[in-house]
Protein backbone atom coordinates (compact mmCIF):
# COMPACT_ATOMS: atom_id res chain seq x y z
CA UNK A 1 0.00 0.00 0.00
CA UNK A 2 2.87 2.37 0.77
CA UNK A 3 4.21 1.92 -2.76
CA UNK A 4 0.88 2.76 -4.34
CA UNK A 5 0.54 5.78 -2.05
CA UNK A 6 4.02 6.98 -3.05
CA UNK A 7 3.14 6.48 -6.72
CA UNK A 8 -0.08 8.45 -6.26
CA UNK A 9 1.72 11.27 -4.44
CA UNK A 10 4.22 11.55 -7.27
CA UNK A 11 1.42 11.65 -9.85
CA UNK A 12 -0.42 14.30 -7.86
CA UNK A 13 2.84 16.25 -7.70
CA UNK A 14 3.00 16.38 -11.50
CA UNK A 15 5.07 13.30 -12.37
CA UNK A 16 2.68 11.34 -14.62
CA UNK A 17 5.06 8.39 -15.02
CA UNK A 18 6.98 7.79 -11.78
CA UNK A 19 9.95 5.43 -12.03
CA UNK A 20 11.21 2.91 -9.51
CA UNK A 21 13.92 5.37 -8.50
CA UNK A 22 11.34 8.13 -7.94
CA UNK A 23 9.28 5.94 -5.62
CA UNK A 24 12.32 4.61 -3.77
CA UNK A 25 13.65 8.14 -3.28
CA UNK A 26 10.30 9.42 -1.98
CA UNK A 27 9.95 6.54 0.47
CA UNK A 28 13.53 6.99 1.67
CA UNK A 29 12.88 10.69 2.31
CA UNK A 30 9.84 9.67 4.36
CA UNK A 31 11.97 7.25 6.40
CA UNK A 32 10.44 4.12 4.91
CA UNK A 33 12.51 1.21 3.66
CA UNK A 34 11.37 -0.15 0.33
CA UNK A 35 11.60 -3.57 -1.27
CA UNK A 36 12.84 -3.28 -4.84
CA UNK A 37 10.66 -6.13 -6.11
CA UNK A 38 7.51 -4.53 -4.72
CA UNK A 39 8.39 -1.13 -6.18
CA UNK A 40 9.08 -2.75 -9.55
CA UNK A 41 5.74 -4.57 -9.40
CA UNK A 42 3.80 -1.33 -8.78
CA UNK A 43 5.59 0.54 -11.56
CA UNK A 44 5.17 -2.27 -14.08
CA UNK A 45 1.50 -2.74 -13.20
CA UNK A 46 0.66 0.96 -13.55
CA UNK A 47 2.96 1.65 -16.52
CA UNK A 48 1.06 3.36 -19.33
CA UNK A 49 -2.14 3.69 -17.28
CA UNK A 50 -3.81 6.85 -16.11
CA UNK A 51 -3.98 6.76 -12.32
CA UNK A 52 -7.39 8.46 -12.25
CA UNK A 53 -8.80 5.74 -14.52
CA UNK A 54 -7.29 3.03 -12.34
CA UNK A 55 -8.89 4.58 -9.25
CA UNK A 56 -12.29 4.84 -10.96
CA UNK A 57 -12.14 1.16 -11.97
CA UNK A 58 -11.21 0.24 -8.41
CA UNK A 59 -14.15 2.18 -7.02
CA UNK A 60 -16.51 0.27 -9.29
CA UNK A 61 -15.17 -2.99 -7.90
CA UNK A 62 -15.58 -1.77 -4.32
CA UNK A 63 -19.31 -1.32 -4.77
CA UNK A 64 -19.70 -5.06 -5.21
CA UNK A 65 -17.97 -5.87 -1.91
CA UNK A 66 -19.82 -6.47 1.31
CA UNK A 67 -18.22 -4.11 3.78
CA UNK A 68 -20.34 -4.30 6.87
CA UNK A 69 -23.71 -5.11 8.23
CA UNK A 70 -22.48 -6.74 11.40
CA UNK A 71 -22.49 -10.34 12.44
CA UNK A 72 -25.69 -12.26 12.97
CA UNK A 73 -26.49 -13.22 16.52
CA UNK A 74 -27.89 -16.57 17.50
CA UNK A 75 -31.34 -16.67 19.09
CA UNK A 76 -30.20 -18.40 22.27
CA UNK A 77 -26.97 -17.96 24.20
CA UNK A 78 -24.63 -20.92 24.22
CA UNK A 79 -24.75 -22.97 27.44
CA UNK A 80 -21.81 -22.40 29.74
CA UNK A 81 -20.05 -25.01 31.79
CA UNK A 82 -20.58 -24.63 35.53
CA UNK A 83 -17.41 -24.43 37.56
CA UNK A 84 -16.83 -24.35 41.29
CA UNK A 85 -15.96 -20.67 41.08
CA UNK A 86 -19.33 -19.92 39.50
CA UNK A 87 -21.33 -21.87 42.07
CA UNK A 88 -19.55 -20.55 45.18
CA UNK A 89 -20.93 -17.34 46.62
CA UNK A 90 -18.80 -14.36 45.78
CA UNK A 91 -16.93 -12.76 48.67
CA UNK A 92 -17.71 -9.10 49.10
CA UNK A 93 -14.72 -6.94 48.47
CA UNK A 94 -14.92 -3.42 49.81
CA UNK A 95 -12.71 -0.71 48.41
CA UNK A 96 -10.22 0.74 50.89
CA UNK A 97 -11.48 3.82 52.69
CA UNK A 98 -9.72 7.07 52.03
CA UNK A 99 -8.53 9.04 54.98
CA UNK A 100 -10.39 12.32 55.02
CA UNK A 101 -8.10 15.28 54.72
CA UNK A 102 -8.98 18.48 56.52
CA UNK A 103 -9.86 21.39 54.30
CA UNK A 104 -7.34 24.15 54.19
CA UNK A 105 -8.03 27.79 53.64
CA UNK A 106 -6.50 28.86 50.40
CA UNK A 107 -5.68 32.51 50.05
CA UNK A 108 -6.83 33.69 46.63
CA UNK A 109 -5.24 37.10 47.03
CA UNK A 110 -8.53 38.88 47.68
CA UNK A 111 -10.03 37.63 44.44
CA UNK A 112 -13.51 37.23 45.91
CA UNK A 113 -13.52 40.15 48.37
TrEMBL record:
InterPro entries: P1/P2_N_sf, Ribosomal_P1/P2, Ribosomal_P2. It comes from Paramecium tetraurelia. HAMAP family: Ribosomal_L12_arch. CDD domains: Ribosomal_P2. The keyword Ribonucleoprotein applies. One of its GO terms (molecular function) is structural constituent of ribosome. GO terms for biological process: cytoplasmic translational elongation. GO terms for cellular component: cytosolic large ribosomal subunit. It comes from the Eukaryota. Residues 66-113 are annotated as: Disordered. The keyword Glycosyltransferase does not apply. This is 60S acidic ribosomal protein P2. Belongs to the eukaryotic ribosomal protein P1/P2 family. Keywords: Ribonucleoprotein, Ribosomal protein. Residues 72-93 have a biased composition (Low complexity).
Amino acid sequence: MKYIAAYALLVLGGNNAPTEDDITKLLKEAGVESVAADVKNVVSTLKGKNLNDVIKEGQKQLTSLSVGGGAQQSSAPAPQATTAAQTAPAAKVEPPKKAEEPEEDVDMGGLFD
